[in-house]
Each structure stands twice: as structure tokens, then as C-alpha cells.
Design goal:
Blueprint (H helix, E strand, L loop, with lengths): L2 H7 L3 H16 L5 H27 L8 E16 L2 E13 L1 H24 L6 H20 L3 H19 L6 H32 L18 H10 L10 H17 L8 H4 L5 H10 L4 H8 L1 H4 L3 H22 L5 H21 L3 H28 L17 H15 L5 H19 L2 H28 L7 H4 L7 H16 L14 H10 L16 H28 L3 H8 L1 H8 L4 H69 L1 H6 L4 H30 L1
Antiparallel strand pairs: 1-2
Length: 714
């Protein structure tokens, strides 16, 4: 076996390395030095990246139609015979790994960006307590995400899905002595459980419909012996039965239930509320969650199940609409945020909306392309924000920043590049991926008029994105310094372990979008061509993925509109925050109600508290009262009281009636025998006394009679 064959035959090593690092931290981490923690935890993720990179290169050596490697380690769940839509099947869930073009992209993004975040954390967490615990959680997070993206079936994907949910709870609440942090961790955990309920129902519906949860049988030694969703779906559709036709309710139900899970994990309306609060965790955690792991899981899952979504046009409409609405909704809230990390948090929610818009219009490859480019510039933005916070001794309010452009150049320059990228300024990566999404949305609008509205929302969101990101840049790094004097004296550049990852991410924020360069002269994107085998459905003409391409002139016009929106946002931010800094305050004062609504995030948290949280508390209080007063009071305590009353009556009856009669029966013979018992003692000396007394009485009696007789004789 050559080296490439070895790597493909040992895909399980990729998630195993960080799992071993996590286990080591949990068992003996307390005894290890920080250098040893760095070696094991950062080294394990580096090994995962090296193995993943090698495995992807090995897969590239194959022909495009054969780029699938699937490895089953063992049969995990084997309940036996189970009824399904294809008849009785022997249901089996494997513990296996799948490497195809889609998982290639994901595993490289997760391991590479995750490795850089681990390196960055060495400097950022150097003076924090729980150092080993933090890196143990990070490694466990990496294992969970790698299990998710490499899983060869939906059930194993769900294991990784729940794993990243657990790790997010642990890392968001890392500062568990801080109430806001522990509350944020619980909020993230609970909100995601709501979404996961839908995911579980969708998973069960998939299993009972297809009789399997395996994604594909391609890449296995005997595909016919291993039923899979894609092949079974193709067979059912080929039967031309109404219940499995294009737009069938069963496909719509599957897609919508799975999408409910995606709205929780990827922070879409209505389950987005946990993500901004997740900023309570350490900044590297924010970068890992927002860029490379948890929030991208929902996008990946929908893309992985694209064959089902392509047959469910109603679900595709819902995905696109939710994505577009979330994108503009979150962008408007980001405009007024003053916490540097929360601006980026709402930005993430908005950009995820772009990805779901792409998925909803059938441009699955474009959604994954934006996921990849977003991973680079969003990780850079969060890590850059962490470097700013580190330099300012923990300050996160952008109103107390400014003038840092030349003070911390190793942070400010990469942050500027990331801002250009996310704003969609050419030729940086965000321009290409965002333009592809808007282009596909516009092309979809040519087929269905209602999609024109979604394209317009995407274009307006592009302008808002540029505005709030350049607002953040100008407020943080330009203008007069507003840093408090006590902190300004201690401003310092971050260590190399923090700034070098920023430079690497800045490079990829520039060049990662160039994979789409051929589209500029009318050719197919090599990235889309690479992903096509993983995203191809069972029907070529579903109206979802077969979008076609614009004419070159229309492509340039749409591109120009996208760039114009980005430049308009930039110029407006410059006008309000550089040239005339007082103007934005005057605008806020002129529109106080609108400003207040945006500052309070449309009062969604308050509405959720009023409708769900507080009502749940009220219901819990009512159940508590019912339990205490009815169950315990009338039930448990009432039964105890009755038992005590009846026991007292029973004790009285037993003592005075039953025992009284028994005692009387014993006492009466005892009373009658008392005279006899006075003489029948059983003691010889007593009897001797009685005899003497009797003799004395007899002698006395006879002596008296003798005297009487003698007197009589005389």
C-alpha cells in the first residue's frame, strides 16, 4: 500500500488525533505544563490537518467520477428488520467515514482554520486559568466537527452534531464564575435542543422512508450490498409513483424537519438568538464557532442532503426566504452594535443567511464556496478583534477605541483586509463568493418572479454589510483615540503566536476566492465543477440546481451592482464615522424609535422571554405548586396524615379494647386465685411457719376448751 492509499484507508485517524488530545487533557491535563498542553493539543490538530491534506491530495489523483472514498469501521447500530417505504429492510447504521469533494472542502477548512485558532490561543489564553481545560474542550470540539463532516451516514453525523452542541456549551460558559457567561452557555444549549428536536424527527423520517441513513453506497467494495439514501431515492423516483414524485409531501417534510435543526445550529430565524450571546466565551472560541465549526454544520448538512432538497421545491423556497430574511435582519442589528465581538456575531448570522439563500436557490456549490471564504475572513476578524481586546486590556466597546491603525499594525492591517473581503470589494475572496450567490439568486428570479425580491434583499444586505464593517474598522482603528488614559498607557501589540495566524488568514482572505476567476470570462467555476459529483441530484431537471448561466454582459452588470452596493456602504460609513463623526449621533437622535428598536435587537429577546421563557417559568411554578400542594399535599402528605390518624385509632383500639379484654381475661383468674396464692407459695420455710402458726392456734384453742372443762368439773 502506497502513502496515498494508506491515508485514504485510515481516515479515522483525522478525528482520532484531537480526541486523544482531549482525553489526555481531561485525565492528566492538570499535571501538565503549558508547553506540554500546547504540544499535545495544538500538535494533534496539526496532525489532523496533515492527514486530511494528504488524503485530499490522494483523492485528487482519481478521476472526477471516482473521487469517493468510504470506510466502514464497524456496524454501530443493528436493530434488525424494520419496515420502510421500500419494504422490510435490515436496518444498519455504520460507524464509517466518507471522503468526497464536499467533505474534502469541509475537512480542510475545519482542520486548517482550527489549527490556526489553536496556535492563536497559545498567546491569548497564556495568562488565563483552566488552560488545559480550555484546550481539552477545543480538541473535543475539533473531534466532534470532524466526525460531523466525515460521517458516512446521517446518524453518525448527528453524533458530531450533538458533540459540537455540547462543546459550544462548555466553551461559551468557560468563564463559569461569570453569570452572563454561564447563562449564555445554557441559552445556546437549550435553543439548539429545540432545533435538534426537528432534526431527530427528520432523521427518523429518512430512516423509515429509505430503510437506511447511509448517504451513498459509492466508494464501497460492493455498493449493491450497502443500501444508501442517494441510490434508494433514485430507485423510488424512477418508479414514477405519486408519493415519490417531484414536490411530494414526504420530501417536503424531510427537508423542513432537517432544516429546523439547521436553523438552530446555524443561527437562522427564529433560532438565531443564542449566537450573539455566545460572545461571552473567550475570543478564540468565538472564532472557532463562527468560522470553522458549529454554525457551518447546518449549511453542510443541507448541502449533504441536497438530493432530497432538490425534490422539495417548497422546502427550497423556505430555505431561501429564511436565509434572505436572516441576512438583512441580522445586518440591521449589526449597524448599531457597540461591542466589537457582537458586531461580528450579527455579521456571522447575516453571512450564514447568504449561504442558505444560495442553498435555497439551488446553488449548493456557491453556498459551500461562501462557507469556505467566510471561514478565512471571519476567523481573521474574530482573531483580530481578540488581538485588539488583548491590546486594550479587555476593552470591547468600539466607542472607547480609535487611533489604533499605527499603534498595532500587525493587527490593524490584516483586520482591514478581512473587512474588504467581507464587504465584497474585488479582488478579495468575499467578492467572488457573494457575487456568485447574488448572481444565482438573480438567475433564479428569471425563472420564478418571487425570487427577485430575495435577490434585492441580498443586494441591500451587501450594502449594509459593507457599512457596518467599515463602521467597525473606522471606529476601532481610525480617527482620534478614545481609549481611556489608564488603558492607553498599556497598549501593546499582540505576541507572534497571535499575529502570525492573522497574516496567514489575511493571505487566504485575498486568494481563496480566485477559484471563481474563470467565471469572469464566462467559464464554469472549477470549484463548482469539483463539487458537482457530491451535489448532483437524482433528477437532472429539478428546477433547483440546473440554473444555467447569465450572458457575460448580464454577469458584469450584476457584478457592478454588487460592487456599487459595497462601495456605497463604505462611503456612507466614511461620511458618518470619519469625515463627520457627530453626524451619526444626530441621525440617531432624529430617529430615536428606530434607533431604540435596533439597539434592543427588535426586542426579540424580550418577546421570547415574555412568550416562552417566562411562560415556561410560570408553567414550572404551576407544576411546582401542583406537586407541592396536590401531589405532596393531598397525595403524599394526605396519605401520610390519614395513615397517622388511622394508626392512632388502631393503637387506641388495640391498647384499650383488644389488649384490655386480653388483660382482663388474665387478671380475673389471677384475682380469684389470690387467696390460694397467698398460701401456695412453694417455699418450705413459709409452710413451716404456717404449720407452727396452725399448731399454736390449735394449742390455744384446745387449751381454752380444757380450761373451760376443768372449770366446769370443779
Amino acid at each position: 500500500m502506497n502513502s496515498s492509499g494508506y491515508l485514504l484507508a485510515h481516515l479515522w485517524l483525522i478525528p482520532l488525533f484531537p480526541l486523544l488530545g482531549a482525553a489526555l487533557m481531561f485525565f492528566i491535563g492538570r499535571r501538565l505544563s503549558k508547553e506540554a498542553v500546547n504540544l499535545f493539543c495544538v500538535g494533534s490538530v496539526f496532525l489532523s490537518f496533515v492527514y486530511a491534506f494528504g488524503a485530499v491530495l490522494a483523492l485528487f489523483e482519481r478521476s472526477p467520477t471516482d473521487r469517493v472514498c468510504q470506510q466502514i469501521l464497524f456496524q454501530w447500530i443493528t436493530p434488525g428488520a424494520m419496515p420502510s417505504s421500500v419494504g422490510m429492510v435490515n436496518f444498519i447504521a455504520d460507524w464509517g467515514y466518507l471522503l468526497d469533494p464536499l467533505s474534502c472542502v469541509m475537512v480542510l477548512v475545519v482542520t486548517f482554520v482550527g489549527f490556526l485558532i489553536h496556535v492563536y490561543s497559545i498567546g491569548y489564553m497564556a495568562h488565563e486559568g483552566g488552560y488545559y481545560r480550555f484546550f481539552g474542550y477545543l480538541n473535543l470540539f475539533m473531534f466532534s466537527m470532524l466526525t460531523l463532516v466525515l460521517a458516512n451516514n446521517l446518524l453518525l453525523l448527528f453524533v458530531g452534531w450533538e458533540g459540537v452542541g455540547l462543546c459550544s456549551y462548555l466553551l461559551i460558559g468557560f468563564y463559569f464564575l461569570k453569570k452572563s457567561a454561564s447563562d449564555a452557555g445554557k441559552k445556546a444549549f437549550i435553543v439548539n435542543r429545540i432545533g435538534d428536536a426537528g432534526f431527530v424527527l427528520g432523521l427518523m423520517l429518512v430512516a423509515t422512508t429509505f430503510g437506511t441513513v447511509r448517504f451513498t453506497s459509492q466508494g464501497l467494495s460492493d455498493p449493491a450490498a450497502f443500501p444508501a439514501i442517494l441510490q434508494t431515492l433514485g430507485g423510488l423516483v424512477a418508479l414514477h409513483q405519486t408519493q415519490f414524485a417531484y414536490g411530494a409531501p414526504i420530501f417536503t417534510a424531510m427537508a423542513l424537519l432537517l432544516f429546523i435543526g439547521a436553523t438552530g445550529k446555524s443561527a437562522q430565524i427564529p433560532l438565531y438568538v443564542w449566537l450573539p450571546d455566545a460572545m461571552e466565551g473567550p475570543t478564540p472560541v468565538s472564532a472557532l464557532i463562527h468560522a470553522a465549526t458549529m454554525v457551518t454544520a447546518g449549511v453542510y448538512m443541507v448541502a449533504r442532503m441536497s438530493a432530497i432538497y432538490q425534490l422539495a421545491p417548497i422546502s427550497m423556497d423556505v430555505v431561501a426566504a429564511i436565509g434572505a430574511l436572516t441576512a438583512i435582519f441580522a445586518a440591521t442589528m449589526a449597524v448599531v452594535q457597540t461591542d466589537i465581538k457582537k458586531v461580528l456575531a450579527y455579521s456571522t448570522t447575516s453571512q450564514l443567511g447568504y449561504m442558505f439563500l444560495a442553498l435555497g436557490v439551488g446553488a449548493f456549490a456557491s453556498g459551500i464556496f461562501h462557507l469556505m471564504t467566510h471561514a478565512f475572513f471571519k476567523a481573521l476578524l474574530f482573531l483580530g478583534a481578540g488581538s485588539v481586546i488583548h491590546s486594550l486590556s479587555g476593552e470591547q466597546d468600539i466607542r472607547k477605541m480609535g487611533g489604533l491603525w499605527n499603534t498595532i499594525p500587525a493587527t490593524s492591517r490584516p483586520f482591514w483586509i478581512a473587512t474588504l473581503a467581507i464587504a465584497g470589494i474585488p479582488p478579495l475572496s468575499g467578492f467572488f463568493s457573494k457575487d456568485e450567490i447574488l448572481g444565482h439568486a438573480f438567475n433564479r428570479a428569471a425563472m420564478l418572479d418571487r425570487y427577485f425580491f430575495l435577490w434585492a434583499i441580498g443586494l441591500v444586505t451587501a450594502a449594509l454589510t459593507s457599512f457596518y464593517m467599515f463602521r467597525l474598522l473606522f471606529e476601532s482603528f481610525f480617527g482620534m483615540s478614545r481609549v481611556p488614559i489608564e488603558k492607553e498607557e498599556h497598549i501593546h501589540e499582540s505576541p507572534k503566536s497571535m499575529t502570525v495566524p492573522l497574516m496567514i488568514l489575511a493571505f487566504f482572505s485575498i486568494v481563496s476566492g480566485w477559484l471563481a476567476l474563470p467565471a469572469l470570462w464566462g467559464e464554469e467555476s472549477p470549484f463548482e465543477r469539483f463539487l458537482e459529483p457530491s451535489l448532483r441530484g437524482v433528477e437532472l431537471d429539478t428546477g433547483a440546481i440546473n440554473l444555467g448561466h447569465h450572458s457575460l454582459l448580464k454577469e458584469y452588470l450584476l457584478m457592478g451592482a454588487s460592487v456599487a452596493a459595497a462601495v456605497a456602504g463604505l462611503l456612507l460609513a466614511r461620511k458618518l464615522y470619519l469625515e463627520n463623526p457627530k453626524l451619526h449621533g444626530q441621525i440617531a437622535a432624529a430617529w430615536p424609535r428606530l434607533h431604540r428598536v435596533l439597539v434592543h435587537k427588535y426586542y426579540v429577546d424580550e418577546i421570547y422571554d415574555a412568550l416562552f421563557v417566562n411562560r415556561t417559568k410560570d408553567l414550572s411554578t404551576a407544576f411546582g405548586w401542583f406537586d407541592g400542594q396536590i401531589i405532596d399535599g393531598l397525595g403524599v402528605d394526605g396519605a401520610g396524615w390519614l395513615t397517622r390518624v388511622f394508626s392512632r385509632i388502631s393503637m387506641w383500639w388495640d391498647k384499650w379494647v383488644v389488649d384490655g379484654l386480653v388483660n382482663f381475661v388474665g387478671w380475673f383468674p389471677n384475682f380469684l386465685s389470690m387467696p390460694v396464692r397467698m398460701f401456695q407459695t412453694g417455699i418450705f420455710s413459709t409452710y413451716a411457719v404456717f404449720i407452727l402458726i396452725g399448731l399454736a392456734i390449735l394449742l390455744g384453742y384446745y387449751s381454752h376448751h380444757m380450761q373451760t372443762i376443768v372449770h366446769a368439773v370443779h
